[in-house]
Design brief:
The complex is a heterodimer of chains A (305) and B (304). Chain A has 305 residues and is mainly α. Chain A is 78% helix and 0% strand. Classes of the chains: A mainly alpha (305), B mainly alpha (304). Chain A: It holds the Pfam family BPD_transp_1.
């Protein structure tokens, strides 16, 4: 097991290097940050001095090397908007995003498990059709629009929940529903298909033929086994979840990493943009790795190699 | 040898292709059998007509400011007027006209970006699948890295660097979406290249480029069509999201995302501003998904 984990951890490195390379190349193409740092009437010597001190006169590959070297030490540069180290600004925002993400996953699970089991055990029933239909419409509906419609209904019309911001549980409800329903559709579909697969297995048929109550068969035999792919599915939703959080956080003025990134893109605060991208990429990749490892622990049929 | 065997190989390759893609007659029969497929096609057809004939269909100039009629509600509500069917916004602009013009941007960006990513993805998939080896390894590692992080993330970096405009948006969405094509096309190529007609073509010394263009490319077209259709749907959503965030389409060009973002500030007084563009996006995307799912059922050999 340890051997496998170490090997997988090592595989993360090239992926992160490729991502950092793409980001660095884009920023490099974008041109000289010096123009933004100095007043317009700065003397040529002054510009040249700053370029020299920032290492901007070095060739591309040396600059990239320096960039990676600084990045490993956690130095993404200084945010000109916040006047502090970009990494610490990003890390400060992480708890808010985690809070929202966990609440969203809880909501998605609360929707996906009952509907997934329901539509798998009663295939082509009206509940199955409604669940499948809702999933398709949910996929077609832009997430940010759903958020706005929820604000319109619960905050503006009914006045029961706050419009935006973070603080109480009430603040968390609408953004969590918005983000959660975004992944619930996919989760329901996957639970349904993994339940269907298991319900056709021999041991389920045996259990049924022995006269065990069908509720018992579904929960004790089928659902428990369907949980194995489910854990993986949940972890693999991290990418979709964070992608969705970028927009949901902006809609609800939720002070997480998503809102920070969108603001940084708007103000061209490149240090923050780069730090956000690398941190998000690292989180997503680690969660995918975690999904693989948990899957292998839970399912003894899969051998590690 | 020579000409004759080439002709046989071509014929064999075409038979294989026809077996997979079917004839127009079979298609139309299958379309009528699928309710969602028919609905999807009708929606897509309708939206396309709206986009093409927007200047004729729109009752007003989408950017015409009318200080005399701000926040006019939809016509069926109290205070509404028949002149503005879906009401007006904070500057008195006609919402219906803005939505009609917005369809142009959505379809243009959606289709252009998807074609760009399709061309990149299919080329990389063909090359990686056909040549294999180290090149394949490097390309697929690259694809994995792209797939590892949310699509919108790369789009944001691009936009931060190059600034928002319709051209950047098309390039950005095109460059961030090619990975799914590359992966699926590569998979297809791996199986097609073991077919007899490809082996035969190789054995009589047909050049690699020619094999790729004559025998592999036509056979991955169906995969290309299926992914493209479904990608247009996700690209339209992504475009509207970015425009909503102020990072996509810039005024005076009208996009559903920007109309929605204008309306976000007036939820308390004018609910219709943010509601109708969202409905337009949902219906359009729904139609494309229906059409795409149906195409997949018809074209994808794995689901047949």
């Amino acid at each position: 097991m340890m051997h496998y984990i170490v090997r997988r951890m090592l595989q993360i490195i090239p992926v992160l290097l490729i991502i950092s390379f793409i980001v660095f190349t884009l920023v490099f193409i974008a041109g000289d940050p010096v123009a933004l740092m100095l007043p317009e009437d700065a003397a040529l010597e002054e510009i040249e001095q700053l370029r020299e001190s920032l290492g901007l006169n070095e060739p591309f590959y040396i600059q990239y090397g320096n960039y990676v070297f600084r990045m490993i030490q956690g130095d993404f540069g200084e945010s000109f908007r916040y006047g502090q180290d970009a990494l610490s600004v990003v890390l400060e925002r992480l708890p808010a995003t985690f809070e929202l993400a966990i609440a969203a996953i809880v909501i998605a699970i609360m929707i996906a498990i009952p509907f997934g089991i329901w539509s798998a055990t009663k295939q082509n029933s009206s509940i199955d059709l409604i669940a499948t239909g809702a999933a398709v419409v949910g996929k077609a509906m832009p997430n940010f629009w759903l958020g706005i419609m929820l604000i319109l209904l619960f905050s503006v019309t009914l006045g029961v929940l706050p419009v935006s911001g973070r603080g109480s549980i009430a603040h968390l409800i609408l953004p969590a529903i918005t983000l959660g329903t975004g992944i619930a559709a996919e989760m329901t579909r996957l639970i349904r298909s993994s339940m269907l697969e298991i319900l056709n297995q021999d041991y389920i048929r045996t259990a049924k033929s022995k006269g065990i109550k069908s509720v018992h068969v579904i929960y004790k035999h089928a659902f428990r086994n369907a949980l194995i792919p489910f854990v993986t599915i949940t972890a693999l939703q991290t990418s979709t979840l964070i992608g969705g959080a970028l927009i949901t956080e902006t809609v609800f003025a939720w002070p997480g990493i998503g809102q920070l990134l969108i603001q940084a893109v708007n103000t061209r605060d490149m240090a923050i943009v780069q730090a956000c991208v690398m941190i998000i990429a690292a989180i997503v990749i680690l969660m995918n790795l975690l999904a693989d490892i948990i899957y292998r622990i839970l399912d003894p049929r899969i051998k590690l190699n | 040898m020579g000409e004759q065997s080439k002709a046989i190989i071509d014929a064999d390759s075409q038979v294989y292709m026809r077996k997979r893609n079917g004839t127009i007659k079979r298609w139309s029969k299958l379309l009528l059998r699928s309710k969602t497929g028919t609905v999807g096609l009708l929606i897509v057809f309708f939206i396309t007509l709206v986009a093409v004939f927007a200047p004729i269909l729109a009752p007003h100039d989408p950017n015409a400011i009318n200080p005399g009629g701000l926040h006019v509600p939809p016509s069926w509500m109290e205070g509404g007027s028949a002149e503005h069917l879906l009401g007006t916004d904070n500057l008195g602009r006609d919402i219906l006209s803005r939505i009609i013009y917005g369809s142009q941007v959505s379809l243009l960006v959606g289709i252009a970006a998807v074609l760009l990513s399709g061309i990149i993805g299919v080329c990389i998939g063909l090359i990686a699948g056909f040549y294999g080896g180290l090149l394949d390894n490097i390309l697929m590692r690259f694809v994995d890295s792209f797939l590892a992080i949310p699509t919108i993330l790369f789009s944001l970096v691009f936009l931060a660097v190059f600034g928002p405009s319709i051209i950047t948006l098309i390039i950005v969405l095109g460059l961030t979406n090619w990975t799914s094509y590359a992966r699926l096309v590569r998979g297809e190529v791996l199986s097609i290249k073991e077919r007899d007609f490809v082996r035969a073509a190789r054995s009589i010394g047909v050049k690699n480029n020619k094999i790729i263009i004559r025998h592999l490319l036509p056979n991955v077209i169906s995969t290309f069509i299926v992914i493209s259709t479904l990608s247009v749907a996700s690209t339209i959503i992504l475009e509207s999201s970015l425009s909503f965030l102020g990072l996509g389409i810039q005024p005076p060009t009208v996009s559903w995302g920007t109309v929605l973002s204008d309306g976000r500030d007036y939820l308390a007084t004018s609910w219709w501003l943010a509601t109708f563009p969202g409905i337009a996006i949902t219906i359009t995307v729904l139609g494309i998904i229906f059409l795409g799912d149906w195409l997949r059922d018809v074209l994808d050999p794995r689901t047949k």
